[in-house]
Write a structure and sequence with these properties.
- It contains three helices and four strands; from the N terminus they run E-H-E-H-E-E-H.
- The chain has a four-stranded mixed β-sheet.
- Helix 1 links the parallel strand 1 and strand 2.
- The protein is globular.
């Protein structure tokens, strides 16, 4: 991630939601390259698993979420209010996805 520098837009549209919280690791993984000016887009945000992902992210990061209602499966526009500092340890990423 050190090579990534700053990420302006992070689009999360996979992996396919076949396992609970399968998209959760995206934010903790890319967090070092994100800040309050970055836009995180989570596709399919009306699905149950993605709603859980947003909830978990909210527990680990200081985020602001805007749900776009005009889409079939939903899209969430997420911004970090502050520079990420994980409230969970890196080991939680593995535990949460199982």
């Amino acid at each position: 991630m050190e090579q990534a520098g700053h990420i302006d837009v992070l689009l999360i549209d996979g992996p396919k939601s076949i396992a609970p919280l399968s998209r959760y690791p995206a934010l903790p993984t890319f967090a070092p390259a994100l800040d309050s000016t970055s836009l995180i887009i989570l596709d399919d945000s009306k699905r149950g698993n993605e709603k859980k992902v947003i909830k978990q992210w909210g527990e680990a990061f200081d985020i602001e979420v805007e749900q776009l209602k005009a889409t079939l499966r939903g899209q969430a526009y997420i911004r970090l209010r502050t520079k990420p500092s994980m409230k969970t340890s890196p080991n939680d990423r593995q535990a949460i996805t199982h």
